[in-house]
Design goal:
single chain, three-stranded antiparallel beta sheet, 3 helices
């Protein structure tokens, strides 16, 4: 990997004087730059008070193999996370390329985000979507404040995946499918 800087023309604002460039304080610009890195899309869900509760998250990542840990970042303004945080187990479904509508539905602020979706709950109440490319049954290990979000570290109790089912990808504020090259 080269440590040489790319030419100024390769970076959209690099040739502008510092005063004319967007800054990190410009949240629209910050979101656009963060969106340059593609990520997977997950459904986070659990049965709470007898009802499936969930949300979509694209900030999912692996953390540790021993112990098995993953994380997701949740906005502090989320009204859904406080409900999910009460659940003993939380399901994470790695959405497939065919589940873009499910991703939009779970990201929307509507009362029944699971309406019309095929899902099941584990014995401990983790909600998992059918036809996902992978799933994890987790519990909360730690919650770490980080700016306007919390980093939720989750311990993995059970999991599986099918690499034959292509995942849904979030890039530049839109859903995409992976293509083999």
């Amino acid at each position: 990997m080269s440590s040489a800087q790319p030419p100024a023309a390769a970076l959209p604002a690099a040739g502008l004087p510092a005063a004319a460039r967007p800054t990190v304080a410009d949240t629209t610009h910050l979101r656009r730059v963060f969106g340059a890195c593609p990520s997977g899309v997950t459904a986070i869900g659990a049965v709470v008070d007898g009802v499936p509760v969930g949300l979509a998250a694209s900030s999912f990542t692996s953390v540790s193999l021993d112990p098995p840990l993953v994380s997701v970042c949740i906005a502090r303004t989320s009204s859904t996370w406080p409900l999910l945080a009460r659940a003993p187990r939380i399901g994470i479904s790695i959405l497939s390329a065919a589940q873009a509508q499910a991703g939009r539905q779970l990201a929307a602020r509507q009362p029944d985000r699971f309406a019309g979706l095929t899902w099941h709950a584990t014995a401990d109440g983790a909600v998992l979507l059918a036809d996902a490319s992978g799933w994890l049954d987790t519990s909360i290990e730690a919650q770490i404040p980080a700016g306007d979000h919390d980093i939720i570290v989750l311990r993995v109790h059970d999991l599986d995946a099918s690499h034959d089912i292509h995942p849904l990808v979030f890039h530049a504020s839109r859903f995409h499918r992976l293509e083999h090259i």
